[in-house]
Amino acid sequence: MPSPRSRRGLGSVIAVAAFALAFGATAAEGSLVGETIPPYPAGLDELQGICIAGGPSLDRICDYGLQVIGRPSADPDRAATPIQLLASRNVEPEASQARWRVTDAVAVPKPRKGYELQLGSCRFDRIDGAPIVAFVRHGHREYSRDVLWARQMDIASGKLQPVAIKRVDCLNEGLGV
After folding, report:
1. First to last CA, the chain
2. d(Cα 61, Cα 133) in Å, to the nearest integer?
3. What is the C-alpha to C-alpha distance for residues 10 and 31, in angstroms, rounded to an integer?
């Protein structure tokens, strides 16, 4: 008969496994950290992306970026499959097409029904300007706090940091459309 201590340990393992299964995190397709993109690995493309300003002047408007890469869908009625969220630094700011050095990459969890991956229009503690990516579900309000997962890019380190989802809200860009 298992001891109370081993049952607790087993309970913790089961809880972690259940969370992982429920959240459906997708394994990253190999690390792109340190690589320059585009081009993207075979079969993957940029699905979403935003620029992050590195300063107040217009020539700094796209010093950093967040990109979601994944598999495009061949079926127009099906959504693409996001695989990784990338943090990056623009290596050629004067170029006609941006080239990015990947500074961090994390696997994107499998989307849950009704939630969408949103870049650039989320707030932390109701303050605009934080480079946050989040899975959010919107209702009929201007901002939604129904957030399942969120990461924020730390500009200084180039890393994607988990953030407390209870402190994140995202603009409902489709409200009134």
Report:
1. 61
2. 18
3. 32
pLDDT per residue of the chain (177 residues) written in tens, 0 to 9: 555 554 444 343 333 333 333 333 333 446 899 999 999 999 999 999 999 988 888 888 899 999 999 999 888 888 888 999 999 999 987 788 889 999 999 999 988 899 999 998 999 999 988 899 999 999 999 999 999 999 999 999 999 999 999 999 999 988 876
**Global confidence as pTM:** 0.78
What contacts 49, CB < 8 A, 6 or more positions away? 65, 66, 67, 68, 119
Nearest partner of 111 among 94, 143, 134, 142, judged by Cα: 134
Query: Own/partner pairs for 83-87, CB < 8 Å, 24+ apart?
Result: 83/26, 83/28, 83/29, 83/44, 83/107, 83/108, 84/28, 84/29, 84/32, 84/108, 85/133, 85/151, 85/160, 86/32, 86/37, 87/153, 87/158, 87/159, 87/160
CA distance 52 to 88: 10
